[in-house]
Fold these 4 entries.
Entry 1:
Amino acid sequence: MEPATDEAGATPHVHTRVKRDFWDKLQILVQPMGGLFTALAIGVLGFKSSEFLDRRQAAETNTRLYSELMSRREESESALRKDMFQTIIGSFVSASDKGDLNTGVLNLELLVYNFHESLNLKPLFLDLKRRIARGAATAPNASVRADYVDYMNRLERVARETGRKQVIVLEGVGRKFDRTVDLTVDPEGTSLEEAALTLDSLQATIGIDIVSVDRVNKEIDVELTVETPDPALGRQTKTATFQVSYFDFPMIDNTRLIGGYRCAIVLNNFSDYSADLTFVMFPGEYASLKEKPYYSEVIESVRRENARDK
C-alpha cells in the first residue's frame, strides 16, 4: 500500500510527538537557570575574593604597623638602658671613690637586675665583696660590723636570685640536674654522681669532681668532665677546671661544647653543712649577648634546623 499524496503529488509530513521522560523535563526547567547560577557564582566568587584581599591587606598593614611599633619600642628601650647604664656605672664609680658601700651595693643591684644577661658583673661583685670584707675587719664596734654583714647578705642575695632566674630560663630550652656536696667532711677529691643528658642530637655524660672548697669565701673549685659521642672521631672528652661561686652566672660563665651547645655550673646555696650545685646544658644562642657564636656553630645550627624540618 503506497502512502497518500497531496494534489501536487508530494507526500505530506507527518508530525510525530516525542514522549519526554522526567530528566528531559528537568533539563528544560533547569537550562534557563544555568546562566543565572553562573552569574551568581561569579558574583559570590568576586565578593569572596575581594573580601580575602581586603583581609590580607589589613593583616599586612597591621603586621607592618606592629613591626614599626616594636622597632620604635626597642629603640626607645635601648636608649633608656644606655642612659641608665651610664648613670648607674658613673654613680657606682663615684661611690667607690668615696667609699660609700650602701650606694655601691644599691647601684650594683640596679646593674644586675637590668643588665645581668649581657654584662659580666662578677668583677664588680668581687670588688664590693673585698671592700665589705676590709670594712668588716676594721669595724670599730658590733653595730658597724652588723652593717657590713647586711651589705654582704644583700650582695649574695641578689647574686643567688639572678643565678636562679637564669637557670629557670635555660632549663626551659635545655637540660639540668642538681647535686649536693657534703661539707660535714672534707670533700676534696670527691666525685659526684654522673648524669647522662640528651639535648636534641647531643648526648653527654657529665662528671663533676670537687677539687677544693673555700669555706670563708664560699667558693668551690670543680673539675668538669663532659663525654660526648662523635660519629667520625669516636667518643670525645672535654675537661675544664674552674671556680664556682654565687657570682658566676650561667649565661655569662659557661663552657662551650660541640655543636654550639653550652654548659655551666651554678652555686645555689652554701652553708656549713652542704653546698647545692646545679648543672645546666643549653643551646649556644641562649648565652649572653657578648658571646658571639663561631661560624661553624651557626652552620651546624642551620643544619640541625633543616634536618628537624625534614
Entry 2:
Amino acid sequence: MTTPKTTFLVIRHGETHWNAHQRFQGHGDSPLTARGRSETQALGQRLKHIPFDRLISSDLGRAMETAHIIAGHNGHALEVDSALRERNYGELEGLTVPEIRSGHPEAYKRLLVGDPGYVIPGGESRQQHFDRNIAFFKAFVRENPGTTVALVVHGGVLDSLFRFVVDRPLDQPPCFTAVNSSLSIIGHGPFFFATRWMIQTWGDVGHLEKL
C-alpha cells in the first residue's frame, strides 16, 4: 500500500526585539518587532493561497504571536505543542555572544566546539533538543498520514529538522540559513521508489520582497 504524503509548512516566527539585538532567546521570550509583525502579515497573505489542514505552534510567545497573525488570514484554529520549542539556553538566555564570551567563558567554549551532549547550565543539550523536536515529526507522520500542516517554530527547530532529513551530524556546523518569517516545505511519502523524507522548499522569503 502506498504511504500517503504528509506535508509540513514550517515557518520561522517573525523578528523579535531580541533577534534584532542578537540575543539568545531559547525558552525566554521577546515580542515581535513592528518589522516582525509586517513580515508575518505578508506570510499570512501568502498562506491564504496554500491549502493546509491544521495550524500548530510552539507554545512560546513569539511563535504564538506569529501564529495568531497567520490564523487571522485563514481562520484556522491554533493548536500548540511544547515539543516545538526552541532549545533551552538556560543561564545564557537574553545574552549576546560578547556577553556570553566574557561572563560565561566555559559555556562559550563548549558551544564553540559544538558538543551535542553539552548541557547548558539550567538548559538542555543540542542532542536533547534534537530528540524532542524529531520525536514530534515522527509521531505526526505516524498518526496523521496525508495531512498538510503549518507549523510555527524556531531557528533551532529548523536546524533539527534539516539535520534529520539530510542526516547531518549534530557536531557539524549549520550549512543553511532560515531567516525570520521564512517558509520551508518538508514532505514525507513516496519519492524515488521509496517512502522517505524530502526537502521541497527551504527558507523561502519571496513573500517579503515587497517589504
Entry 3:
Amino acid sequence: MDIVELFIDDENEYSGIDAISVVENPAIEEDFVALKNQEFKLAEVDAEKRILMGPALIPNKPIYRKNEDKEYYIYFSKNTVKKASELFLMRGKQNNSTFEHQTPLQGMSVVESWLVEDDKQDKSRKYGLDVPVGTWMVSMKVNNEEVWQEVKAGKIKGFSIEGYFADKIESPQDKSIKDELAEIENEEAEYLLATIKGIIKKDKRYKSGKTMELESYSDYPSGVKNNAKRGLELNEKVNNKCATQVGKVRAQQLAQGKPISVQTIKRMHSYLSRAETYYDEGDTKACGTISYLLWGGKAGKSWSESKLKELGVI
C-alpha cells in the first residue's frame, strides 16, 4: 500500500491549511478535550469557557485514505506540521472553521496554537493528551451555540484540517518513516541488560558457581523462519539498506532456528504489532515490508503472542 507524504508547495501561495473543521471522527484519531473554567476561575464568571483543545496535526502518523478503489496512507513530516501551523496564523486563518468539512461556521476562533516540544512538561499532558513531540496543538473558542450543544452531546470529538498540499508517492523508505521503524527496532538494544539480569535462571549448578542457564525458546513454526529468510533475500536485493543491525541479526537468528529469550519474544511481538502498518505484501522493495519479514512477519506475530500467553506474560 502506498504511503503519500503531503507537503507545502512554496511556489503555490494557496498551499497550506485554510480552515480547521470540527468533526465526529477526526482522521488523526485523537479527540480533543472541552476545557471548562477551572484553570483561572473569575469571581464574576462561573460559566464554561467553551474552549476546545486538541491536536490539529500529528507528525509522521499514517492516516488511512481510500479514493474510489485505491487505498493508501498519507502523512505529514515534522517540518511540514511546523510550517503549516506558522502559515495558518501568518495568513490570518484562525477564524476559518467548518462543520464536518462542509458547512462554514461562525463564532469559532483558534485562540491558542503551539507545537509540543516536551513529552512530559507540555500543557497537553495536563489534560491527558499523550501526543508525540512535534504535534500541532490548538485551542478553539466556541461562541457558536449550535456547535457547543453538539460538543456536549458527544457528536463532535475532534479537529480535522482542510487545505491544499502537494504530494509525492513514497514507500516507507522515506527517512521519517525509516526512522520510526528504526526507533522501534532499537528498543531491543535497551533491553539487553534487562535480558541478562532477568532471564538468567538459577539452578543448583549455578548456585554452586559452575553454570548458568538461559531461558529461551526455538519452537517457532517454519513460517517464522521462512519469513525471516525471505526478508534477508529481499533486503539483499536492495543492497541491505532496510532495517537496523538489530533487525538484521534478529532475522539471522530466526532463519537459522536459533533459540530466543522471553524478553526477545516480547520485543518481537511489540515490534510486529506496531510495525504492521508499514507492511505491504505487494511491495517487496519497501523497507516496511522487508523489516516486518525480518522479524518473522505475520507468522512471528501470531507465534509470539501465543507463546507469551502460554508463559503467562500477557
Entry 4:
Amino acid sequence: MSSDSPARKKLKERAWTIFFTLAITLVFGATVSALHVATQERVAQNEKLFLQRALRQAAGLPKLPDAGLPEWFANSVTVDAGALRPRYTVRLEEDGKPVLVVERSGAGLWGTIRLAVGIAADDDGISKLTGIAVLEQGETPGLGARIDEPWYAEQMRGKHGTLKRMPEGTRSERPDEIDGITGATITAVAVQEILNRVLAEQDSADAEQRRAD
C-alpha cells in the first residue's frame, strides 16, 4: 500500500488545522453566548438597582438596603414617560412632598459625565438642589473621578442660583458657591455647567407657572 504523497499529506494537515480552529471557535462562541444569556437578567437587575440608588441619593434620601429598593421605587417614584430626557418624581416619606430628579449630561475631560440631579422648592418657593448622583463618568482616577466621592455630592444640597466654583476645601455656606476639585478643572466645570443648566431650566419653569397662575 503506497503512502500519501507529500502534497496530499500537506492538504490533510491544512484541513485538520481548519477543522480544529472552527471547532475551538464554535466551542468558545457557544460558551460566551451561554454566559451572556445566563447573566443578562442579573445585569439588567443590577442596572435597575444602580439607578434606584442614584435616585434616592439625588432626592436627598438616606441609603436603603438593595432588597428594599424595588418596593420603594414602585411606591414612591413616578417616571415621566412623555419626557424627552429621563425625568422622575420622587415622593418623600416624611411629608409626601415631591422632588424632581432629572438626568443631564455634559462633556468631561475624557468623555460624557451623566448626572442624576434632584431639585425641589423650599417653603419660600425657591427651587434648590436636593442632591446629585453620578450615573456615568470616565474621568482621571484620583482627579476628576473624585466627583464620585460623598463629600462632593453632599455639598450640593440646598444650593441654588447661578453656581460659582470655589477652591477645594472652601466649604462655602453661600447658596451659590460650591467647591471644585484641585487638578480637575475641566471635570468640575462640566458638573457646574450641568447643575446651572438644571437650575436655570427649573427657574424658567417656575416663572412660567407663576404667570399661568
